[in-house]
Amino acid sequence: MTENKLRILVVTQYFWPENMRINDLVRDFADAGHEVTVLTGLPNYPEGSVFPDYKTNPDNFKEYFGARVVRVPLVPRGTRSLTLIFNYVSFFFGASTLGVIKLRNQKFDAIFVYAVSPIMAAIPAVILGRMKKVPVFLWVLDLWPETLRAVGVLRHPTLLAMVGRMVSWIYNRADYLLLQSKGFADNVKQYCTKEISPERLVYFPSWAEDDFSVSSPISSNLLERDDSVFTVVFAGNLGEAQDFPAVLHAVESLKDRVSVRWVIVGDGRMSKWLSEQVVSRGLNNVLLLGRHPLSAMPGLFACADALLVSLKTNDVFEKTIPGKVQAYLASSKPVLGMINGEAARIIEESGAGFACSSGDTQGLARITLKLATTDVAQREIMGQAGRSYYLKHFSKPTLLLRLEKLFRDATLRKAAK
Description:
Layout: E1 7-11, H1 22-31, E2 35-40, H2 52-56, E3 63-64, E4 67-71, H3 81-102, E5 110-115, H4 123-132, E6 136-140, H5 146-150, H6 157-173, E7 176-179, H7 185-189, E8 201-203, E9 230-235, H8 244-254, E10 260-265, H9 271-280, E11 286-290, H10 297-302, E12 306-310, H11 323-330, E13 335-338, H12 341-350, E14 353-356, H13 361-372, H14 376-393, H15 396-416
Parallel strand pairs: 1-2, 1-5, 2-4, 5-6, 6-7, 7-8, 9-10, 9-12, 10-11, 12-13, 13-14
Antiparallel strand pairs: 3-4
């Protein structure tokens, strides 16, 4: 290893052309001159089937901004719970066997795991770390098994305990645990059977994608700016956890009190329900735009007066910072949150907007009305406050420099042993 170049292996079930934050990390480290290799699966998220462009010409997806991309076969997610389980298992098994074989002659200085669900994706990284005697960095973005219980995927205590033992096995063998939220610390520590040293447990939050840092004015092909109405935009997954029944109740309660346009962009398990409810309730001020690429979001956000984040109440969700919070703050727009815990704290601490408790229909209506009747100049001040907070706490260049230093320090410690 030279002083300037690191050999980094990134292990992630999800990667380009799938739209994931890990793409930014890989590109930026490769652009900085580091030798980056990505061990991943076949692109199939969120549609559930392998991307047609990849199937047509997989050779076009072997390199990403100079980073080598090594793929292993997996069962696509599909649309059912059973195929999703096969998807999780097939990646961890394929990466732990075929992936290890494909990387057998390659040397690394650090292994980085993008540990969104499922946590089993970290197992091949642990195996490779032991084989190649290099430090493994696990970026903990979901709490397992707590998240499985919270979303109702697993409820049986015995099965949850089995998953807990697997999580403990992984955490105890990773060299560094990077936590996307400070609220994760206690949950993570309880699965570490031996005392974990402070330098192994690192707060490392997410950042917003580069698209949200464009300073020049942006237009949108999805929506026109309308100053005669207060526009609230929600962007992201349309799932049960986002509590759209409560959101629609707030929409209804404000219908005759203030002129608000609600714009929802994204898709998910609640998409069909939302479409049906908007029609049956006659909510002509709710626009469902469907799913669009990340590159379309800055222009859409520029048409908004406020950006909405919502999440059901839960001891796990309260400790999580949804990735959209950083994107909202970076966009210099006021934020409305029907959410508890860390995300609510950030919204209020930053001065970027208002938050109410998860599931609080009247609370969401109240803070929406409050923001809609706030002076435009004051709303701009709130948006800028959010942007300043983002740059101070979640700036990607700063975070990636921190990560690079962690890699170098760990490599030196490993070499000194």
